[in-house]
Amino acid sequence: MKAWTLPDLQQRLDELDVAAGAPDDPRVLTRQRILDVAADHFIRFGYRRARIADIAEDAGLGKGTPYLYFDSKKTLLLACIVREKRRLMPGMAAVMA
Question: From CA 36, how far away is CA 79, in angstroms rounded?
């Protein structure tokens, strides 16, 4: 089994983060807003008490809109985790260098 390198990990996280697109694309912006609010809800309330309808409301969206971007609450949580890991990658690269 091959050892993971930082570029390998970054590539894998990029593959998991399906938000690739123009930063000003309305769908990308909506997805990012959902992730922002969802991450806050998961932190404040925990996974079980975080509700998709509340996340949508706080994001200023219809209660079903998050399901156009994420097929389940579990997928939404995983997307939040992937996004946070991607944010940490530059710092990890600096530490490992």
Answer: 11
